[in-house]
Design brief:
Blueprint (H helix, E strand, L loop, with lengths): L5 E5 L6 H14 L8 H8 L3 E6 L5 E9 L4 E9 L8 H15 L4 E5 L5 H6 L3 E2 L4 E5 L1
Parallel strand pairs: 4-5
Antiparallel strand pairs: 1-2, 2-3, 3-4, 5-7, 6-7
Helix pairs in contact: 1-2
């Protein structure tokens, strides 16, 4: 069921504590944190990155993406996940497109990311070029 989604941006978990914890739980459930099952560790990883969360009408986090600046023109996109029950509703696309807009507004011209093999077609559809088995790049 498609809902109205709001994208909330924060640069430190303490700026949006409730949403940060929800996002960390979603990333733990779906993302690439196989070595830890600790919300505090994921929150620590959020430090120094711009986190974008898709929030539904009930203020529940249903998608996330994180953006980290590497240098003046290069950024890394990470922790792009969406609620499995809402896949196909455009949540991932919306958070990635918002992350790209934020990156451009901050002078980042190139985004790199590592992905699971199952998400390769998703990133290709969004204009990312596959560089290796799991690595992608997009010039903004």
């Amino acid at each position: 069921m498609r809902q109205n989604l709001e994208i909330v941006r924060f640069d430190r978990p303490e700026h949006e504590p409730e949403l940060s914890v929800q996002a960390a739980r979603l990333v733990l459930e779906i993302g690439n944190y196989k070595k830890t099952r600790d919300v505090e560790t994921v929150l620590w990883h959020m430090e120094g990155r711009t986190t974008l969360v898709a929030v539904d009408d009930n203020r529940q986090v249903v998608g996330t993406a994180a953006l980290k600046r590497v240098n003046s023109t290069l950024g890394v996109l990470d922790d792009v996940v969406s609620d499995p029950s809402m896949r196909g509703d455009g949540i991932g696309r919306k958070v990635v497109k918002t992350a790209e807009e934020v990156a451009l507004s901050e002078g980042i011209l190139e985004l790199n990311l590592a992905s699971s093999l199952t998400a390769a077609s998703f990133y290709k559809h969004l204009g990312y070029t596959q560089l290796g088995e799991r690595f992608f790049r997009k010039y903004l």
